[in-house]
Structure formats: C-alpha cells, structure tokens
Amino acid sequence: MWVTLGPSSRCPDARLSPASPSPARMLLPLLLLPWAWGARTASPPLPPASVTLRLLQINVFHNTSSTDMEGMALLGDLETHSMDCSTCQIRFLQPWAQRGLTPKEWQDLELLIHHYLFNFNRTVNRIAQQQGMAYPFVTQVSVSCEFHPNGTSRGFYEAAVNGEDFISFDADAGTWVARQGDKLALYTRDLLNHERSTAITLQFLLRATCINELKSFVRYGNESLERQERPVAMVFARAPPPAGTPASLLLVCRVTGFYPRPIRVAWLQDGEEVGPGGRLSSSGILPNADLTYQLRSSLAVEPGDGHSYACRVEHSSLGGQSLLIPWEQSWGWGPGLAVGITLGALAVAAVAGVLWRSRRRGYQDVRPGESRA
Question: Is the separation of the CB atoms in 265 and 252 below 8 Å?
C-alpha cells in the first residue's frame, strides 16, 4: 500500500538501482509481493460504511542530489502509518497498524519502497532538468481508494507542484490527465501515457492491492473507526452594534468534541430550517488536539426582529436524535454578558455563604436557657 510515497536520495537503499529508471520500473516490483494479489486479504467482510484509505506525500527537491520526503497513510481520518527519510522506515501509529502482514512481509515491502523511492526521485529530477525547472520545488501527491458497502470502489491519484494541481490519473480510463496547460504538465502527461505498463500497474494497485489492504485494516481497526464522541454545543450572540448602526446581529453556534467527522449543523427560525444564503456562514470542520472535531456556524439576524432562533446538531453519536440549542433573544446573550452574569451569580453565592456562617456562629454562642436580643 505504500507504493505512492515520495522520493529521497537519503534513503538507505538508494544505491539499489544504478540503471536509468522508467515509470514502469518504479511500480512493477511491487507486484512481486505475493500478498499484493489479495490472497491474504480476500476474506475480510465488507465494511458497514464507506471508508477511504489515503496515502499522502510531500517531497522537497532542494537540488538534484538532495531531497526530503515525508509520507503518511490514513484510514478514514486516522493516521495509521508514516515514513520520512531520516530513517526511511515505516512507523506504525495505531496499535493494530502492523497487523494484516507478517513482520517479514512488512520488511520486504519496506525494501521495495526504498527501491521505488530512489527510482522515483531520479525520474522527477530527470524531468525537471529536461524542462529547465528551477530548484527548489515541492511536490505533493495524494493517492486514495474508497470502498462502499455495496461492494463498489474507486481509486484516485492526484499530484501537485508547489501547491498547484499538476497531473492526475483516471483509473477508469487508465490514462494520465494534465491539470495545467503549461509545457511541463503536458510533457509529463505524454511521458507517463507513453508507458502503458505503468497505467496498467497503477490501475491494479488502486483497484486490488489498495482495496485489499483497506479491508484488512478495517477488520483490525474497526474499534477505532467506530469510536463515537458526543458533540457539546452552545449558542451565543456577538455584542450588538452601537445604537444607530445599521448592522445585523451575529448568532454563533459552537459545536465541539465530536467524532467521527461527519456532522450536520442547521439554524431554525420559528421552527423552520434556514436555507442556504448570505445569512449563513461556517468555519468548516476543524480538528481538536484530542482527535475530535469542532465547528462554528453563524447566522446574521436583525436585532429585535421578534423571531425565535435555535441551532440544531445532528451526529451519529446521538443515536438518531438531535441537539436543539435555542437562543434567548430577550437575554441578549454575548460572551461579555454571559461572563458578567456568571461572576455576579458567584458573588451573590459568596455573600450568602458568609451571612449563613456568621448567623450559624451567633446561634452556637447562646447557652441553654439564655436568649439573645
């Protein structure tokens, strides 16, 4: 599954291939692995939901003889493996990530990766030199396969240079597609399409090897994939504009601590869902440090318009139910006002506690048979 990781001249086995590489030679050795044909992983059951295995790489080409590489594998949104060329060893980031292959099979795969990285590195440098590309430059590659409960699957290969889309592989047609119209992208497309064996090999790796490995990892990592964390939500309004300013009030629904990633957040006005439009805005789903997610959704309203508003949150951890968090317009909630009310309540509680203790001591000082004026 690590076929797509990027090149580095610092990998320990870079000396393995003195000959000039071709694109096909970079991929074909991986088919020598017996388990690549799916013999070991044909038995796992279908996953209950759609799941994706993604391989991401970043290569920094400093010059023709110096390249840094980092790569990672993600199952769904869980990072399962990583590799960089400080050691060029596969690191297993989940307790179950090493299962599915034996230690010897992982070792064989790692050796072939080193061979592939060296050849890939030389090919990229050859293209850069022939086309007069200036160093340094960065390449980014995303390779993924997704599998659905009905048994269908799809594979993707997309590459970028210096942060801009460069070339992609159409797994159905078996051809490379230039994502830019410049000379470099067209040259690379034609070079890769000329190597028909490369396209056939990549189709097989996306449709068979990647899918088999995906199903194997789903079997062993199912508990991690099915983890459920309930969202916590609150609604507040940003401070209203100064008097006489014709500006809308912004209601904010903050939802955090949920897992898995898919979630739906909607605003209700008088019980009816607010449709898409300029009144709505969202931060998008962002990661938290504890491997959960957060999101903010905002709705612009007119102060004192007389409508009722609520934020509705739907998530798989809620068991088919939803969270409904109303905004109390009469309270004029805002972060500053909420803090002020909280501090005021604490102050009242503290004063009440002091008076109660003082009164209790006064009664304890009265002896039996005596009275206090």
Answer: no
